[in-house]
Design a protein that fits this description.
By secondary structure, this protein is mostly helical. The chain is built from 15 helices and no strands.
């Protein structure tokens, strides 16, 4: 009788754990407020729609990194590689091949980035810690130099010009104010967010958390560590490539900055500001970073990065788990008092 009882107890424990993770990560009614505000931006502030679209692209890029860093614990300094691949794929399809349809170009950007992520992830994720950190940086730097060397294709430092995107569904024309682009990016962001949310609450997402917390124990129970990490890395690369494709389509111009270390550092800064392992941390972190960078750049076009660095130091000292971590602590404190 001991064996059936222990099996039943283990099943109950798994059920409780699943319920807890789903409660923590599942959608709440208050989250609708974020998306409603995002939807209202081009209506209330149409003159800021173009900038708002770039904020949304940064949110999507940060989501891709949060999935592999916050849930799988894979730290990378070269995530811009997949953003840049997606941007160049989408841009080259239009500028060199004359393929101007936006949705298929976005799918191609995500697919090529996913393929590159699967290949590089399968090779890189055999290593951990500092070795992995340097290898991811090496991959991004290699692509940056390749784009510079192959200037006949990429445009090099002069940038890739001649990108023309057709109306979305053949109906929604692109406007100078950027309202159409904003709505397009917001729709893609919402779809990717929902997809990543489902991954995080699935058994696969729970396995990633286990790998992040204790790789040795997960290996001991027979979990395919490399397979899980490679799949997570591939998904993250695909989402980053979609973000890069959106960047190319909404700007109609690409420079080598899309592959730069500065872009990888910026998205990592976003996650430090917002908090990792909760998806919304990427969204709020991107919002704070982009608004702060824009305001500081207007104050001082040369030294604005100093202000961003100072903000980062303050956030790390006062709330090391990010702005959403601070929010969780405040809510828990007031909840405890109420009880």
């Amino acid at each position: 009788m001991a064996a059936p009882e222990s099996t039943a107890a283990a099943a109950r424990a798994r059920s409780v754990a699943d319920a807890f993770l789903r409660r923590r990560d599942d959608a709440r009614l208050v989250e609708a407020g974020f998306w409603l505000v995002a939807l209202a931006v081009p209506i209330a502030l149409p003159e800021h729609a173009a900038f708002g679209g770039q904020v949304l692209i940064m949110m999507l890029f940060a989501l891709s990194l949060d999935f592999v860093l916050g849930y799988a614990g894979v730290l990378t300094l070269g995530h811009a590689a997949y953003f840049g691949v997606g941007a160049y794929v989408s841009g080259l399809l239009s500028a060199k091949l004359g393929w101007h349809e936006p949705l298929s170009g976005l799918v191609a950007a995500g697919a090529v980035s996913a393929a590159f992520g699967a290949l590089s992830g399968w090779l890189l994720l055999r290593y951990r810690d500092l070795t992995l950190l340097m290898l991811t940086l090496a991959v991004s730097t290699t692509l940056f130099e390749l784009a510079n060397t192959w200037s006949s294709l990429t445009g090099g430092y002069d940038g890739l010009m001649g990108i023309q995107i057709a109306p979305i569904f053949g109906v929604f024309e692109w406007d100078i104010a950027g309202v159409t682009g904003y709505g397009y990016v917001l729709a893609v962001l919402l779809l990717c967010f929902v997809a990543l949310r489902r991954f995080t609450v699935s058994p696969f997402g729970q396995a990633l958390r286990g790998i992040r917390e204790n790789t040795l124990r997960m290996r001991a129970i027979g979990a395919p560590i490399l397979g899980h990490l490679t799949l997570a890395y591939t998904i993250a690369a695909a989402v980053a490539g979609i973000a890069g494709g959106l960047f190319a389509q909404t700007n109609n111009f690409i420079t080598m900055d899309v592959l730069s270390f500065e872009r990888s550092a910026a998205v990592l800064t976003v996650l430090i500001l917002g908090g990792t392992g909760r998806l919304y941390g990427a969204l709020f972190g991107a919002l704070v970073y982009m608004l702060a960078a824009d305001w500081l750049a207007k104050l001082s076009p040369v030294y604005w990065e100093f202000g961003v660095g100072l903000l980062l130091v303050v956030i790390v000292l006062l709330c090391p788990d990010g702005l959403l971590g601070l929010y969780d602590r405040v809510r828990a404190a007031f909840g405890g008092r109420a009880r």
